[in-house]
Specification:
This protein is mainly alpha-helical. It folds into two domains: about 45 residues, Arc Repressor Mutant, subunit A; about 160 residues, Tetracycline Repressor, domain 2, CATH 1.10.357. About 75% of the residues lie in helices and about 0% in strands. The termini are far apart.
Length: about 210
């Protein structure tokens, strides 16, 4: 039974990513798996239930990245590594990012969770930026909420870069876009770095 549930989620993720959220129904997923819609409904009553489960998987995967790196020394290399893995997870669950507004509007529980998670991510990144200051890699804040606003810019770029890639690239969202837009995200911190930080950033960026 658990295998059937996981097969449904796997098929739904593949179909949502390939055809878009609006073009995939429970009937579409059941047909792809070669099962009856009644069998699918036994595991998921509504399409929104599948979307919620996949969203939770995305959140879990990113949370694991954060947990696994808690013991790592704070450095620009850590920022690069975390950014790379997170962008990869966004690509894996890209239907969520490409239909971000729709998902948030149609599922109140997802929206509420995301709002709470956004605050947590701001705190986590804020702590990292302050650690960069302590290590002489980043300049101290020059005005109130400077770092908070930088965190918010990262969040906006992170949430909507995929929509930009899809609109501007005739081939759609490719894996190459992860590298291109990942670089744009990382570059946002560059003007705030010290000379020491910029040298380290440039070395990492070339690699």
């Amino acid at each position: 039974m658990k295998d059937t549930r996981e097969k449904i989620l796997s098929a739904a993720l593949r179909l949502f990513n390939k055809h878009g959220l609006s073009n995939v129904t429970l009937r579409t997923i059941a047909k792809d798996l070669g099962i009856s819609q009644g069998n699918l409904n036994y595991h998921f009553k509504k399409r929104e239930d599948i979307i919620l489960e996949l969203y939770n998987k995305l959140v879990y995967d990113i949370d694991q990245v954060m947990i696994n790196n808690q013991s790592e020394e704070v450095s620009l290399k850590l920022l690069f590594n975390v950014s790379d893995v997170v962008m990869g997870n966004f690509y894996k669950y890209r239907f969520v990012m490409l239909n971000f507004t729709q998902v948030m509007q149609e599922n109140a529980s997802i929206r509420k969770h995301f709002q709470q998670m956004a605050k947590l991510r701001e705190q986590q990144m804020g702590a990292m930026l302050n650690a960069f200051v302590d290590k002489g890699l980043m300049q101290p804040e020059e005005y109130p909420n400077q770092f908070l606003n930088l965190c918010k810019r990262y969040q906006i770029l992170g949430d909507f870069w995929m929509s930009s890639a899809k609109v501007l690239n005739d081939k759609g969202v490719t894996k190459k876009a992860i590298t291109d837009y990942g670089g744009l995200l990382l570059e946002a911190i560059y003007p705030y770095l010290t000379s020491k930080g910029k040298k380290e950033f440039q070395k990492l960026y070339k690699n």
